[in-house]
Amino acid sequence: MSVQIDLSNKTALVMGVANGRSLGWAIAEQLLTAGCRVGFSYQGERLKGELDKLLKDREGVWTQQADATSEEDLSALFARTKEEFGGLDYLVHAIAYAPRNAMEGRFVDTTPEDWNTSLHVSAYSLVAICRHAEPLFREGSSVVSLTYHASQQVVPKYNVMGVAKAALEAATRYLAADFGSREIRINTISAGPMRTIAARSIPGFGGLYDKGARNAAFGRNATSQEVGKLALFLLSDLGSGVTGQTMYVDAGLSIMTVKED
Ligand code: NAP
After folding, report:
1. Considering only CA atoms, which residue is closest to atom 48 of ligand 1?
2. Which of 16, 46, 52, 96 is surrounded by the fewest CB atoms within 10 Å?
3. So what's the pLDDT on residue 92?
4. What are 204-236's pLDDT values in tens digits?
């Protein structure tokens, strides 16, 4: 079910759509359905074909390559955003990465290189992106990113990614304070486990997903469409007054003690 909301005079930039299962795509679909004009950035040419396929019959969309850790790419991306839209109402950060070996062993063995890469891509990029976007933001502009409960509790194998998500959540609060005087809102959505490319690269994700479905209050995992709907609420004026928050959409998984292993 899609929510009836008119965003036909609004503009959005969605960063981090790898394919139709991406949480960034679930959010983009809600924005497009609401009539929003949407630009997309992708990291590398490798997955551009997937994005092009998703956007084939969509009007008024555009795409641009941008590695979220490259100042040069971000400058070019926001120059393009200015050229296409003039200003920016909504920004979606759906980007995370940790080297696989950092998620296989013990957390204590995390190398400085893996720590820096993971924190840079998955947390600092939100700060850099907001700085680049600032001149384009309007009063009432809104940013959402995606986080995960491993920031709050130890989830086996998440290791440095759990730390990166904790940093992302804290950065959300500091950015919300910086931008608050213009009533620009920054929030992060804590999603339950969803089958995406990024998730599949986490060792043991299949077991975690199945256990999540058994243990959640709903007896199932949340869906990417539910993430999209919460994002639509937070991005649009429905979420006015909400900033600096980590909001859960996990079918009630994080509130439960473990019923079953
Ligand atoms: P996804 O479809 O694989 O999306 C992750 C995106 O991040 C990809 O488009 C990837 O691009 C991009 N990315 C990685 N490094 C980048 C960089 N340096 N610059 C620009 N883009 C980069 O997986 P997803 O699960 O939807 O992930 C989206 C967000 O949701 C992430 O923050 C993730 O941690 C969060 N999340 C996911 C779950 C879950 O269970 N799936 C739960 C909670 C939160 P490439 O494909 O080109 O590398």
Report:
1. 43
2. 46
3. 99
4. 999 999 999 999 999 999 999 999 999 999 999
Residue 103 confidence (pLDDT): 95
Residue 3 has pLDDT above 60, yes or no: no
The answer to whether 65 and 44 have CB atoms below 8 angstroms apart is: yes
Contact 51, 61 (CB under 8 A): no
Ligand 1, closest atom to CA 69? 18
Q: Which residues contact 84 (CB under 8 A, 6 or more apart)?
A: 11, 39, 62
What's the pLDDT tens digit per position in 28-87? Answer: 999 999 999 999 999 988 778 999 999 999 988 999 999 999 999 999 999 999 999 999
Q: Which residue range(s) make up the domain with 47?
A: 11-253
Report the residue among 146, 152, 202 best suited for mutation to probe ligand 1: largest number of ligand atoms under 8 A from its CB. 146
CATH number of the domain that residue 236 is part of: 3.40.50.720
Residue 190 lies in a domain: yes
Q: In the chain, which residue ranges form alpha helices assigned H by DSSP? A: 23-33, 48-54, 71-85, 112-119, 125-133, 159-179, 197-200, 205-215, 224-235
> Ligand 1 mean position to 249 CA, how many Å?
17
